Amino acid sequence: MNRILVVDDEKEIRELFREVLENRGYEVLICESGDEAIKTIESTAIFAAFVDIRMPGTDGIETLRQMKAVRPETHVVMITGYTRDEAVNEALRLGCFVCMMKPFKLRDILGVLDVLEADMDQAAQAA
User: Fold this and answer.
1) Count of structural domains, the chain
2) Domain-located, residue 124
3) What gap in Å lies between CA 88 and CA 46, rounded to an integer?
4) Total Cβ atoms within 10 A of residue 70
5) Residue 14 lies in a domain
6) Which residues, listed in sequence order, are joined to residue 30 by a DSSP beta bridge?
7) In this prediction, what percent of the chain has a pLDDT beyond 90?
8) Can you give the CATH number for the domain in which 45 is found?
9) Residues of the domain holding 12
10) 98-108 pLDDT, tens per residue?
11) Where are the alpha helices (DSSP H) in 1-105?
12) Distance (Å, rounded) from C-alpha 74 to C-alpha 4?
């Protein structure tokens, strides 16, 4: 399964991830809100999701909580611009794979992808 979901209210972030992920061979699904992401993951299996913590409406923490309830196997990477944020601690407690701090560079995204892919390879070998 090589499908990744990107959830962010900022168009520039969504497009950056789309370009990077598609260049790595992933099918990329894009959502502008937590509500849209929850509906997507209820109907579509995905390998990983990049989710912004702070979004209008359903925030990233609630999105993470609901994603894990529906598809606990999904790797969720939280994105935040706030280094001192209780939401980061909550996201880690709820089972996010890792938190990425904004602003990030291309190499940061690629580094997280490398770790995700290594984890996917380990899971496949164990099965």
Assistant:
1) 1
2) no
3) 22
4) 11
5) yes
6) 6
7) 71
8) 3.40.50.2300
9) 3-113
10) 999 888 888 89
11) 11-23, 34-43, 60-70, 86-93
12) 10
Q: Token digits for 112?
A: 């997280």
Provide the angle, in degrees to the nearest 10, between the axes of the packed helices 60-70 and 34-43. Answer: 10
Taking the C-alpha atoms of residue 120 and residue 39, their distance in angstroms, rounded to an integer, is 24
Is 126 exposed, middle or buried, given 0-12, 13-18 or 19+ CB atoms closer than 10 A?
A: exposed
pLDDT above 80: residue 38: yes
Q: Please indicate, yes or no, if residue 23 is contained in any of the structural domains.
A: yes
Cα-only R_g, the chain: 13
Q: What are the percentages of helix, strand and coil residues in the chain, rounded to 5?
A: 50, 20, 30
Q: What number is the average pLDDT over the span 54-73?
A: 94
Helix (H) or strand (E) holding 3: strand 3-7
The residue assigned the tokens 């209820």 is 42
Distance CA 100, CA 57 (A): 21
> Distance between CA 11 and CA 32 in Å, rounded?
8
């940061």: which residue's tokens?
A: 108
* Paired strand residues for 50: 6, 77
Note whether residue 119 is domain-resident.
no
pTM comes to 0.92
